[in-house]
Write a structure and sequence with these properties.
single chain, 264 residues, alpha/beta, seven-stranded mixed β-sheet, 11 strands
């Protein structure tokens, strides 16, 4: 009887160990992901441009820091906002869920007494209780630079976070002096020097998605604003990886801007 009892104990012990081993393997198994998979979201525009991030790594966690992303001209239609929001939510998380990105839309987010003013950007950024890690402006509307100038005064010219303008439609010289980096797209002009109509209507959405991702990824690594010095080339190379670009040159003075770059 003793022998039978010992055999039974050994038998059940082995079975228990096997079950525990199987459970351990199952619990530790990770679902295989393909890093080459990308989310591609089409926008119903005349030229069928696509909004996409080259990868869809979900790297966000709840944080008390925020990067403000402003949807301005050419980026503020309902369909484009929806697609960008989905991409930002997936990769960085939105403010409403405790994520990194806080979005603003012009003109809806800038109403004051029933009217919209881009100058309200100053009030939003100076009065927020959120810990701002950076600001990215897509399609900056006119007078944006005035609001940013007031923000510089508020911080005694020492704004503690980077401000980057992508494809702006505001005054060029004003943004160069109030933003850390300005990135624009080269435009075709006619014989008289005026920008061709199709260029004015064109929406640089396809380039903007990739550059926005690069910009946000880079801002995450920073701890303050970007100095306008000899290291600027290093900074902009992180934003414009795999893109052809050059420094903006003023057509009247021939002066080359240190922080304004043109995509080719």
């Amino acid at each position: 009887m003793k022998t039978l009892k010992i055999k039974s104990i050994v038998k059940y012990t082995v079975m228990a160990l096997c079950a525990a081993s199987a459970l351990s393997i199952t619990g530790c198994k990770k679902e295989k992901t393909n890093p080459e998979d990308a989310v591609t979201l089409s926008v119903s525009k005349a030229n069928e441009q696509k909004i996409k991030f080259e990868d869809t790594v979900k790297q966000w966690h709840v944080t008390n820091k925020r990067i403000f992303v402003l949807y301005g001209y050419a980026f503020n239609d309902e369909e484009t906002i929806k697609k960008f929001d989905e991409l930002l939510q997936d990769r960085y998380g939105l403010d409403s869920d405790g994520g990194l990105i806080c979005t603003l839309t012009y003109p809806d987010s800038f109403k004051h007494n029933g009217k919209s003013y881009s100058s309200e950007l100053y009030s939003i950024l100076s009065e927020t209780e959120k810990e701002i890690a950076g600001v990215v402006i897509l399609g900056a509307p006119e007078t944006t630079h005035i609001a940013l100038g007031r923000l510089q005064d508020f911080w005694d010219m020492q704004i503690p976070y980077p401000i980057i303008a992508l494809f702006p439609q505001d005054d060029v010289s004003g943004l160069q002096s109030t933003c850390d980096i300005v990135i624009d797209k080269s435009q075709k002009v006619d014989i008289s020097g005026d920008v061709e109509p199709e260029e004015i209507e064109a929406q640089p959405v396809e380039e903007a998605a990739g550059i926005l991702k690069n910009t946000l990824d880079y801002i995450i690594t920073l701890n303050g604003s970007i100095a306008k010095d000899s290291d600027m080339a290093v900074h902009v190379s992180q934003l414009l990886q795999n893109y052809s670009y050059s420094n903006y040159v003023d057509s009247e003075t021939g002066l080359k801007s240190i922080n304004h770059f043109i995509l080719h």
